[in-house]
Amino acid sequence: QVTGRKNDVHHGDARERSSYYLLKPRIEGQPGYSGELQHSKTDGMAAPLRARVVNQKSEPVIGMPVIFEVTAYPSGGENYQLDRRLVTTDSSGMAAVNFRTGSAEGEYRLIARIRSAGEENVQFYTVYARGQNWLLLFSAGAAGGLALFLFGLGIMSRGMRRLAGDRMRRIPGSLTKNRIKALVPGAFMTMVIQSSSAVYSMLADLVNSGMMRFRQTPGVLLGAAIGATVTAQVIAFRLTDFSLLFVALGFFLRSLSGRNQFRHSGDIILGFGLLFFGMDIISEALQPLRSYEPFLQMLVRLENPFAAILAGAVFTALIKSSAAFAGILVILGTQGLLSLECSIPLLFGASIGTAVTSVLAVTGSGTEARKVAAAVTVFNIVGVLVFVWWISPFASFIVEISPRSTPGPDEMAMMAEVLPRQIANAHTLYNVAAALLLLPFTALIAGFIDRLMPRAKPGEPAFIPAWEEWQPGGDTEKHSDHKPKDR
């Protein structure tokens, strides 16, 4: 056994020693177990730094000397403390040291290496020292970045709506005679508005005013869920390096041109840039959470799919946009803070949250408007109930169809490289699959809702649509001729 060959470990030649490998240990359910990329307060004790030595068969090596050294520290942080420099591996092949940061904020870089081994047996560690007010700065950065992200999404959506004009309201009624073709206008409108909830509200308005029949809407509703996936796909490209360029271009385009088409195009580009700039701010603010124990424990709890679905539903209902919530999950993925299997039930919860938003939007409205909200609820809940039992196989399939990461020593960086695209692909594939699965049953579900909620009686209150505030042209176009009629 390897454990009994101490002479080979200490006195063997270089070629023999090179058959041992120094690794950063990992334990499922304990992110950051190796101590890499952790955050600590200045003059504070960091979590232990751990290294593990194994042989070619991945068996632990006992009694192997491992050297830990500090290679870089910020100016003023030279009073750091490393409790031991040389550590011998234990029965599990593990070597660990304690490290106290100095008085200065910044990066403290350390290495672990096998004694007299080659460069391939070196592991690198980074410990970030934070000031006492880091939590306040994190909250300000995360909240401000989120606000900028949603604000940019709103500006981009407004520019798209105004550029499309009032023609968009005529699309559903003209293309919904065929249930398959009905998917197209639903997806297109959501891509333009960037909010499936707003599309649901608009459809409820059209049905309540008599411009559409309720049985024309199910296909459009399913298409809207597909259109909501475009935002996450765009965000997954991570164009943050060019965000300020988009902001400048959009601002000058909308400011220097008097033509509405150029001004609306400028809004789209400006909003696009602000969206990615907010995403960059959020990503920077989230870095301390990689080692913040309460947050990591919360992520462990979210591995329960039903807890994750509930959390996704609540957050989506608060921000009223499943597309924006999916985008936020992609941002978390860029930091490696979410696993794919944890993000999938959160996406399921976003569907439930959208249904909650649609129900609240038609509270106190006519029966026809409430039928649309009921259809959204049925479709989204049924879709979640079908897929929630297949999370692991679904995640494995997403991994297979998504790009692979570039091999490297930093597992967190490898996860951050692939997770954004995987989350976006999971969001798209789930919504497309759920729509195609439910499409053959739209007439059956619409008939059930018709029987459950009979036709509106005379004198019922008319639906006051949220779409009115989304009219193209802003305040100058709120008094459109397309106001809902009392039924």
Description:
By secondary structure, the chain is an alpha+beta fold. It contains 18 helices and ten strands. The chain has helices at 6-11, 14-17, 134-164, 171-174, 183-193, 196-208, 217-227, 230-235, 243-256, 260-286, 293-301, 305-319, 322-334, 340-361, 367-387, 391-401, 411-438, 442-452, and strands at 21-23, 38-41, 49-54, 65-72, 81-82, 86-88, 94-97, 99-100, 106-114, 122-130. The strands form three sheets. It has a five-stranded mixed β-sheet with strand order 2-10-9-4-6, with no helix packed on it. Helix 6 (196-208) runs antiparallel to helix 15. It is elongated and about 80 Å long. Mean pLDDT is 79; it is low at 1-17 and 460-487.
Shape: elongated
Rg (C-alpha, Å):
28 Å
Q: What is the rounded distance between the termini?
A: 85 Å
Low-confidence stretches: 1-17, 460-487
Strand order across the largest sheet? 2-10-9-4-6
User: Helix amount, in percent?
Assistant: 40-55%
Main sheet overview? 5 strands, mixed
Helical stretch count? 18
Rounded mean pLDDT is: 79
Oligomer status: single chain
How many runs of DSSP E, i.e. beta strands?
Answer: 10
| H and E string | HHEEEEEEEEEEHHHHHHHHHHHHHHHH
Structural class: alpha+beta
Instruction: Bin the strand percentage.
Output: 5-15%
